[in-house]
Design brief:
Length: 321
């Protein structure tokens, strides 16, 4: 058991590190080949924080654990809002001023409702996977168009995203990190999933709860780091934007992957319990972010964090469900 815990931690650290290196190298190569910082920021960098979830979802699906993959999506989205934005707002109240964010928030609610419609019959099918991945491509193209318009207005989040694109990295160095990331990412995802499953089974957890707890929290660490770094630099919109974008990506891309790779029936609790928690915290975020003050306060951050602790406590008490 001690060995499994150590390997899980190693796998998680490798997963986060390799995803960061892959995104860094890819963004640098894209810039060197003349792709605009706006396009890089809205695609490679925006998707980068969801890279761990994507790889873990694919690994779990190929291993026949679609419940774990779907649990990872639901749990990560809940953790993104309740845990990460909760902690970030406790550190510093978050001002929401970006026009891009005000357009992304309703989209996030829309794709969340779509996830509920797909899971309603407790089955994730191949065509549903195709639909989700197709909508993911449409979403990226739509956000690029919106961002170009907002850039002309001097939108804060667009400027912040462009500033994150690495500069002055030669092609050899960038390509090296892309190759390292592509090699280490699947190895670390496999290490994480296998040992998380071993530990969870030892304690009697279901595949769904494994995805909702150990794996979801672990793969959300890049978003936590990005959000805290953002608020420390005064980039509140970037911190909130990372979470909204990650949640949309998780539903459209990360949930689409197991649909394509391993269509399966789902644990009914995914729809009957966990979807409603995800929808509830998503609506709560919209109310907080689009309220009169356009600010997520420390009190609201405390509420979000408390909800996360209560939810996780409930899951651990009912581990087999």
């Amino acid at each position: 058991m001690i060995v499994a815990i150590c390997l899980l931690v190693v796998g998680l650290l490798m997963l986060v590190w390799s995803a960061d290196r892959l995104v860094f190298g890819s963004a640098a190569l894209a810039k060197n080949f003349g792709i605009s910082p706006l396009v890089i920021g809205m695609t490679i960098l925006a998707m980068g924080s969801s890279a761990p979830e994507m790889m873990v979802s694919a690994t779990a699906a190929l291993d026949g654990r679609t419940d774990t993959a779907v649990g990872n999506v639901l749990g990560s989205n809940i953790a993104n809002i309740a845990l990460i934005l909760g902690i970030t707002a406790l550190v510093k109240p978050l001002l929401v001023s970006s026009g891009v964010l005000r357009r992304e928030l309703p989209i996030m609610i829309g794709v969340t409702l779509l996830a509920g419609a797909i899971m309603w019959n407790n089955f994730l099918g191949f065509m549903e996977g195709v639909l989700l991945v197709t909508l993911f491509v449409v979403f990226i193209l739509a956000m690029l168009q919106i961002s170009r318009k907002e850039k002309l207005k001097g939108d804060a989040m667009v400027r912040e995203q462009e500033s994150e694109v690495p500069d002055g990295v030669d092609n050899k160095k960038a390509a090296f990190w892309v190759v390292v990331g592509l090699i280490v990412l699947p190895i670390s995802a496999n290490l994480l999933v296998n040992n998380a499953v071993f530990i969870a089974k030892y304690f009697g957890m279901s595949d769904l709860v494994i995805g909702l707890t150990i794996i979801a929290i672990g793969t959300s660490l890049p978003e936590l780091a990005a959000s805290l770094a953002g608020v420390m630099k005064g980039e509140d919109d970037m911190a909130v934007g990372n979470i909204i974008g990650s949640n949309v990506f998780n539903i459209l891309a990360v949930m689409g992957i197991p649909g394509l790779l391993n269509p399966s029936f789902l644990n009914e609790n995914a729809m009957n319990r966990d979807f409603w928690v995800m929808l509830g915290v998503s609506v709560l975020l919209v109310v907080m972010a689009l309220g009169k003050s356009r600010c997520i306060t420390r009190l609201e951050g405390g509420i979000l964090f408390t909800l996360f602790v209560v939810y996780q406590g409930y899951l651990f008490i009912n581990m087999a469900a």
